[in-house]
TrEMBL record:
Pfam families: MgtC. Belongs to the MgtC/SapB family. Keywords: Cell inner membrane, Cell membrane, Membrane, Transmembrane, Transmembrane helix. The chain crosses the membrane at residues 6-28, 40-58, 70-87, 94-113, 119-137. It is found in: Cell inner membrane; Cell membrane. PANTHER family: MAGNESIUM TRANSPORTER YHID-RELATED, PROTEIN MGTC. This is Protein MgtC. The lineage of its organism: Bacteria, Pseudomonadati, Pseudomonadota, Gammaproteobacteria, Thiotrichales. It is a multi-pass membrane protein. Residues 17-138 form the MgtC/SapB/SrpB/YhiD N-terminal domain.
Length: 143
């Protein structure tokens, strides 16, 4: 049985906790403002999963090209999951904001994994502000 490095355990818990907390403002907004399927569970899960994938890759591959390939895979996977949130109905594409939000929370998780907290905080803040106030600026279809 391998020895457990408790310093690393606490560090990873700390990183994943930050990714979780920074996804919450977007998740809360989506839960209460949008009636779509993504909300309090989806956004934090995406953020912590992306963070965890990168933490593992960073530990296993330690800066090699393989670490970059893991990041590319995570980014592509978030785009794929987000694409599943888009539905075409009556000639309109619905769910594009949720798709972008899912991708955004993935970027938050990746930023936290690389300890780029300033990037993660800015993404969280801007994402929340866009979701919270962007509807006031959006052109209405009912004219």
């Amino acid at each position: 049985m391998p020895d457990i490095n408790f310093t690393l355990v606490w560090f990873n818990l700390y990183q994943i906790g930050i990714a979780f907390v920074l996804a919450l403002p977007i998740a809360i907004n989506r839960e209460y403002v949008d009636s779509g399927g993504a909300g309090m569970r989806t956004y934090p899960l995406v953020s912590i999963a992306c963070c965890a994938f990168m933490l593992v890759a960073m530990d296993v591959y330690k800066g090699s090209d393989a670490e970059a390939r893991v990041m590319y895979g995570v980014i592509t996977g978030m785009g794929f999951i987000g694409g599943g949130a888009i539905v075409k109905q009556s000639g309109k594409a619905l769910g594009t904001a949720n798709a972008a939000g899912i991708w955004l929370t993935g970027a938050i998780g990746l930023s936290v994994a690389y300890q780029r907290y300033e990037v993660a905080i800015v993404l969280s803040l801007i994402g929340f502000l866009i979701f919270q106030f962007g509807s006031y600026l959006k052109k209405s279809d009912e004219e």
